[in-house]
Design a protein that fits this description.
The chain is mainly β. 2% of the residues lie in helices and 45% in strands. It has one helix and 20 strands. The strands form three sheets. Strands 3, 4, 5, 7, 8, 10, 12, 14, 17, 19 and 20 form an eleven-stranded parallel sheet that branches. It is globular and about 55 Å long.
């Protein structure tokens, strides 16, 4: 923006944001978050950092056992000290109160995932997970990056590691996700009616996932196989330099209704089981 006052003109650039810190020796209390006075948990820190200001939560080395979901606002980055230095885990699926984990749609809900970047996809607000095309609203601008940490599903106790839904401009790099119950990471629009095109203006734009590792995050649910990186409703995505290894699930799998355009998947190494009762073999990229 350009402003003038008494003949003096100056230009301001976009804000660089503020760093907020998390440490295993920190304390979860309001007013903390500085490098010398960090928060204790990532979930609490995410409730204290202002949205849409390009702020960053820096995760110091250590293992973080979260007891509630890490709900990351738009415009907030997560930056860890490194995949080999930072582990984020939990002892359960950490769903919101009242969520029915026995529902047949549980596998399609962001509820139960450990790190959540979720925005409303329907006019009914965040609680509406499915509806008619006329009720869909455009994805929010996330404008955020996730990097430098490992999400550990703790021997399949955590449903999914990272779930990004209805957010444009989200990048994930140098992240490892392993041993989750159903899915490693999800980048998707909201669930919608089958057999219709994705309505114009409702795609999720500018997704980038690169230099990431996924290990054993898939699952077999009856005749359906779930995967490590699950994608849907994307217009403009660049996915590359991935290493995916799974002895049960798929590598990259569609979720919800699918729908893709302008999506590139390249320079990746995906290893899956070559035996499957329903389909003959598992799928590297579905």
């Amino acid at each position: 923006t350009v402003a003038t006052n008494s003949g003096i003109s100056f230009t301001t650039s976009a804000t660089t944001g503020t760093y907020y810190y998390v440490s295993t020796t920190g304390v979860d209390a309001a007013g903390r978050g500085s490098q010398s006075s960090p928060f204790r948990t990532l979930a609490y820190a995410a409730t204290q950092v202002p949205a849409n200001q390009n702020n960053t939560i820096y995760i110091n080395a250590g293992t973080y056992v979260e007891t509630s979901a890490v709900v990351v606002p738009t415009g907030v980055n997560l930056e860890g000290a490194g995949e080999s230095s930072v582990t984020i885990t939990s002892n359960g699926a950490v769903p919101a109160p009242g969520i029915d984990q026995t529902s047949g749609d549980w596998k399609l809900w962001y509820h139960g995932s450990l790190i959540q970047l979720y925005s409303a996809g329907y006019s009914g607000g965040p609680a509406q997970l499915y509806g008619s095309p006329t009720q869909m609203v455009a994805s929010s601008n996330g404008n955020q990056t996730l990097s430098g940490f490992t999400v550990d599903g703790n021997s399949k106790q955590v449903k999914a590691g990272i779930w990004v839904q209805n957010r444009n401009n989200v990048t994930m790099h140098h992240v490892t996700v392993k041993n989750c119950q159903q899915r490693g990471a999800v980048f998707t629009r909201s669930d919608m009616w089958w057999y219709i095109p994705m309505p114009e203006g409702m795609w999720m734009h500018n997704t980038k996932v690169y230099n990431c590792t996924f290990i054993n995050n898939g699952a077999q649910l009856g005749s359906e196989t779930l995967g490590n990186l699950c994608l849907s409703g994307l217009d403009g995505a660049d996915i590359y330099n991935l290493t995916i290894t799974d002895d049960v699930g798929y590598g990259i799998k569609f979720i919800m209704v699918g729908h893709f355009r302008n999506v590139k998947i390249h320079d990746s190494n995906i290893t899956v089981n070559e035996s499957d009762a329903a389909w003959g073999e598992k799928i590297s990229i579905e």
